[in-house]
Design brief:
The structure holds 2 protein chains of 2 kinds.
Chain A lengths: L3 E10 L2 E11 L4 E5 L6 H9 L6 E6 L2 E2 L10 E4 L11 H6 L11 H14 L15 H13 L5 E5 L7 H18 L2 E6 L2 H7 L2 E6 L2 E6 L1 H6 L4 H6 L6 E8 L4 E4 L2 E4 L2 H7 L8 E6 L4 E4 L4 E10 L3 E8 L2 E8 L9 E6 L5 E3 L11
Chain B lengths: L3 E10 L2 E11 L4 E5 L6 H9 L6 E6 L2 E2 L10 E4 L11 H11 L4 H15 L14 H13 L5 E5 L7 H18 L3 E5 L2 H7 L2 E6 L2 E6 L1 H6 L4 H6 L6 E9 L4 E4 L7 E3 L2 H9 L7 E5 L4 E4 L7 E10 L3 E8 L2 E8 L9 E6 L4 E5 L6 H4 L1
Parallel strand pairs in B: 3-8, 3-9, 6-7, 7-8
Antiparallel strand pairs in B: 1-2, 1-4, 4-5, 9-10, 11-12, 11-14, 12-13, 14-20, 15-19, 16-17, 16-19, 17-18
Helix pairs in contact in B: 2-3, 2-4, 3-4
């Protein structure tokens, strides 16, 4: 059992507040992702949990124990970094066995051998056990690093961008492998990344960090469909959500932004009425898949650009002075400058406060 | 008005055969992307076009001139590298003007041509700034401006936006494509990123180990890959490839996957013809199918094959689901939150029109052979 609880965690580096008042509960057996841009505080948070960094304030609990004063070794966690940090002159077998040879652990040679075999099979490197690690590809090296973390059977895995150095295809493969592995082992895993695809595809829950503060915690679906603010909305999702500053005129039931204008349906007007600021100014968020090319009735525009993605086309539509990205079916005609009309899936529109960015209508 | 032709070109680095009998015809006005993993020969090909590398055999023609013996400056091409390679002590204006002044173009005409390029690239307000004061995307625009200003007959670009962050790359893809169209340029563009290639190209030339694997428009490369390498290099998530055995019946094909009790039944006559035409290969086949062509239903129905969900990867707009089929697994693209849990039973069908068979020994698609 290794639930983790952070209470009002704070860490400064000189004048920079790397982590501020961070309170977070991570459940036992959970795959939890800390997501954010460079400098958001996610690695610092991970290093505090690992015992590699001492927080200035707050509490860290692992499995019910307050561990702030425990050394990294006492915390029984295993770390995997972006850099492989393997011993280059040793074989895969020796690298895997290394964490078990510590005098403190008192494993017999036979026990070590068994555990190494089991870990190697789990990360599918059994055929590489006698190879030197400097003869391995990037993907194989990262599998060995993960194998070395699981061989100890720790109660918690901490991983800091472990897939970032790998090429796109291998990342796609290892994402699924790592998620499957965590589910089989049932060990709590905290995974740090700046890549929203990794966060969405692997995490049971995601904690989004920005400027040292926790902005939102939720399942991938919650984060994507009900972002707490415009930052989360634009950080998660690819192609990125379209954001435009508009004016809502509820009396007319219309939205204006530059020379773009459209009518709000009755249901959207009704939900928006109690939430709208007095001046009617909001930042409108529309996901690309919620914009459709339609016939006569839509908002007029023209094709500014179009990207073939095989399974679909991402069209850039110029409408009323805005460039909007729209996901349209493969083979849709999208010649440059071709006139089109677009419509929005209104129940899925997001409205943000233009100053604070706060979502006015969390779904 | 210049077509570019590479005819039977070979290039060695020592004993390393980096370009093998390459033939490529790039028509005037086309945006051609050379795509492949590192070491495949794409950059060497581009450098050979520019005259930065010689070729050991074959010909390169631009328009009606044979250019493979000409130095770079006589080939009328312009090269944009991944690194910005601007002069740090010169303003953006002077950087763009540099090639014109070097060629002795009079001042008034320099101002006019730089102004025109800056308008197209939307960097008019940045012309007085030095490179160090510019953001990454703006610097790359200036670099492109410097290449464009001479109005070369071909623009050659080597991963020009590889160093930019993801958001900016997305933006620059659209801008570069528009620029190409607005300028009526001929562009040859090198990248290892299949998303870039699909998004920008009129035609993609996919290379591996110095050999051109396929040269076609993006839809054809995606829908009709010539071989397993192309099939798995282009497209994300990657195309499913699974071992299979095929049985031909009167009006359908049964596709059996090892360890899976029921076969998939495909009724496309074209598939039957392909398999009939390749009897020798029929024993050693790989099934190829893109995740969006794997149909997933939550209820049994005649002709569907029962399978079990292994893993769900939500991506927001849709989910990618790993489904166990006998000893192997297939990835399917499903609507967001359709699949609720692992271990859940689902029923599958394969879209026959988007099903591929590959000869495992040669890697070739049976479609290409037919």
């Amino acid at each position: 059992m290794a639930a983790i609880s952070l209470r009002r965690l704070g860490k400064r580096f000189g004048a920079v507040a790397a982590v501020q008042e961070l309170t977070l509960d991570i459940h036992d057996r959970e795959f939890f992702v800390l997501l954010g841009p460079t400098g958001a505080g996610k690695t610092t948070t991970l290093r505090c949990i690992a015992g590699l960094e001492r927080p200035d304030q707050g509490e860290i609990h692992i499995a019910g124990d307050r561990v702030d004063d425990w050394s990294a070794a006492q915390r029984d966690v295993a770390l995997v970094f972006q850099q492989y940090s393997l011993y280059p002159n040793y074989t895969v077998r020796e690298n895997l066995a290394f964490p078990l040879r510590s005098k403190l652990r008192r494993f017999s040679a036979q026990q070590i051998d068994e555990r190494v075999r089991k870990a190697a099979a789990t990360v599918r490197i059994d055929h590489l056990l006698d190879r030197r690690t400097d003869r391995l590809s990037g993907g194989e090296m990262q599998r060995v690093s993960i194998g070395r973390a699981i061989v100890r059977e720790p109660r918690l895995f901490l991983m800091d961008e472990p897939l970032s150095n790998l090429d796109a295809k291998l990342r796609e493969l290892l994402r699924a492998e790592l998620k499957g592995l965590q589910q089989r082992l049932g060990t709590t895993l905290i995974f740090v990344t700046h890549d929203q695809v990794e966060a969405m595809s692997m995490g049971d829950r995601i904690g989004v960090l920005d400027g040292g503060q926790l902005v939102q915690v939720g399942t991938p679906a919650q984060i994507y469909n009900a972002p707490a603010n415009a930052f989360v909305a634009s950080f998660v999702g690819s192609p990125a959500i379209n954001l435009l500053d508009v004016q809502v005129d509820l009396a007319q039931g219309r939205v204006h932004g530059g020379s773009l204008a459209f009518a709000l349906d009755a249901a959207t007007q009704e939900t928006l009425a109690p939430l709208l600021p007095a001046d009617g100014r909001v930042r409108l968020g529309i996901r690309p898949e919620d914009i459709a090319l339609v016939g006569e009735a839509g908002i007029p525009g023209s094709i500014y650009g179009a990207e073939n993605h095989g399974a679909e086309i991402i069209a850039v539509v110029e409408a009323g002075g805005h460039h909007l990205r729209a996901t349209v079916p493969a083979k849709t005609p999208t010649a440059l400058n071709q006139p089109v009309r677009i419509a929005f899936a209104q129940p899925r529109l997001h409205f943000f406060d233009p100053l604070s960015g706060r979502n006015l209508r969390p779904i | 008005m210049a077509d570019i032709q590479i005819i039977d070109a070979d290039k060695y680095f020592g004993s390393n055969h980096v370009i093998r009998k390459l033939n490529l015809h790039i028509r005037h006005g086309e945006f051609v992307v050379l795509l492949g993993p590192s070491g495949c020969g794409k950059t060497t090909t581009l450098r050979a076009l520019a005259g930065l590398e010689s070729i050991d055999a074959g010909e390169i023609r631009i328009g009606d001139r044979r250019v493979d013996h000409l130095p770079p400056q006589q080939r009328d091409t312009a090269f944009v590298f991944q690194l910005y390679s601007l002069y740090p002590h010169l303003s953006a204006f002077d950087n763009i003007a540099f090639p014109l002044r070097a060629a002795g173009v009079p001042d008034a005409q320099v101002r006019e041509q730089v102004g025109a390029v800056a308008r197209v690239l939307r960097i008019e307000h940045l012309l007085k700034k030095r490179p160090s004061a510019l953001a990454g995307g703006d610097m790359q625009r200036v670099t492109i401006g410097r290449a464009l200003v001479r109005r070369p007959s071909a623009m050659l670009m080597d991963e020009p936006i590889g160093a930019l962050d993801a958001k900016l790359r997305e933006q620059m893809r659209t801008e570069l494509r528009r620029l190409h169209v607005d300028n009526d340029s001929t562009t040859v563009y090198v990248t290892h990123d299949q998303v870039e290639a699909m998004a920008m190209a009129d035609k993609i030339g996919i290379m591996n180990d110095g050999v051109l694997q396929q040269y076609d428009n993006p839809d054809t490369v995606y829908d009709e890959p010539a071989n397993l390498f192309v099939a798995q290099f282009v497209g994300s998530p990657i195309m499913n490839v699974a071992d299979c055995r095929c049985e031909l019946a009167d009006d359908h094909v049964r596709v059996r996957l090892p360890g899976l009790a029921e076969p998939f039944v495909l009724r496309e006559p074209a598939l039957r013809q392909q398999l009939q035409a390749a009897p020798a290969a029929a024993q050693d086949l790989a099934l190829g199918i893109r995740p969006e062509a794997v149909g997933v239903q939550l209820q049994p129905s005649p002709g569907l094959v029962r399978a079990e969900v292994e893993l769900v990867e939500p991506l927001g707009a849709y989910d990618i689901v790993d489904i166990a089929v006998g000893e192997q697994s297939l990835r399917a693209r499903t609507p967001s939150q359709l699949i609720r849990s692992q271990g859940q039973a689902v029923w599958l069908r394969l879209d026959g029109a988007r099903t591929h068979f590959f000869d495992k020994r040669s890697g070739r698609s049976l479609r290409a052979a037919a």
